[in-house]
Write a structure and sequence with these properties.
269 residues, eight-stranded mixed sheet, RNA lariat debranching enzyme activator activity, Cwf19-like
């Protein structure tokens, strides 16, 4: 028996192909893409060398991801299934109403931005991912037309096999290969479909980056109020004119400098 959360070796008689660490393969007419491993910042950026991990998914490298992206780019939205060991970050963005997820589970803080980029590029019909201890099926979401038509993705998150929660760890599919379907059939948007969560997150980030600093930091104090504080405490007020004081002695100007400096310090603090 394999340990809880791990799959045992598939017998050779079953005839199940091995996809390797990262791959795009055609299996019985289905275009299947796969990225093995999880994100680790030092290894992904090259500051630390990857090492094999016994009993768990290894860490993928930047070269692994770039190689897979090149394969996905050539398919132009005809990926039937994408398999990953991680959820994409922000997968629930764009869904209205309560989510059928545990209260302590935060999808915006879980998952990988790298996987989000892969889904956005591949636009698979199905994305099946592990990495969490829960089962979750998201409402379908559509990707904008990049030239080959609109594409719709259905996300399925699977729990580990043998987990104490007994959450669903298997999912069966019956698919006609995208290569055998009419383009119009691939572009059908089902009822309840939402915009791509990754496009929504990117649009929000772009909006925040373009917003002026005042809009992010909050409203600033009106300039008139600051000027009023300074003018009220200025020695120039006694001269009858704020901007044109009468001729004064050198000692008077020194006192003026000390007093104005103190007032500006109060305003700035």
């Amino acid at each position: 028996m394999p340990p809880a959360g791990r799959l045992g070796a598939v017998p050779a008689s079953v005839g199940a192909p091995s996809l390797g660490e990262q791959a795009q393969a055609n299996i019985n007419g289905l275009n299947v893409a796969f990225l093995d491993g999880t994100y680790n910042h030092p290894i992904f950026t090259g500051s630390k060398q990857a090492s094999s991990q016994s009993g768990s998914c290894p860490y993928y490298t930047k070269e692994d991801v770039e190689w897979l992206k090149a394969q996905l780019q050539a398919l132009q939205g005809e990926v039937d299934v994408l398999l990953t060991c991680e959820w994409p970050r922000g997968i629930t963005t764009g869904i209205e109403g309560p989510l059928p997820l545990p209260q302590n589970f935060r999808p915006d803080a879980s998952g990988s931005d790298v996987v989000s980029e892969l889904v956005d590029l591949a636009r698979p019909r199905y994305h099946i991912a592990g990495g969490e201890v829960i089962h979750y099926t998201r409402p379908p979401f559509f990707h904008r037309d990049l030239g080959a038509g609109i594409r719709v993705t259905r996300f399925v998150g699977l729990a580990p096999q043998g987990h104490p929660s007994k959450a669903k760890a298997l999912h069966a599919l019956s698919l006609v290969p995208a290569a055998n379907m009419e383009p119009e059939a691939l572009s059908v948007v089902p009822e309840g479909c939402t915009p791509s969560p990754f496009e929504l997150r990117k649009a929000k980030q772009d909006q925040e980056e373009m917003a002026p600093p005042a809009a992010i930091a909050g409203p600033r104090k009106p300039l008139r109020a600051v000027q009023a504080v300074v003018v009220k405490a200025s020695p120039w007020r006694d001269a009858g004119s704020v901007w044109a004081p009468r001729r004064r002695t050198r000692s008077w100007w020194r006192a003026l400098g000390r007093r104005c400096t103190w007032q500006w310090t109060r305003v700035l603090l």
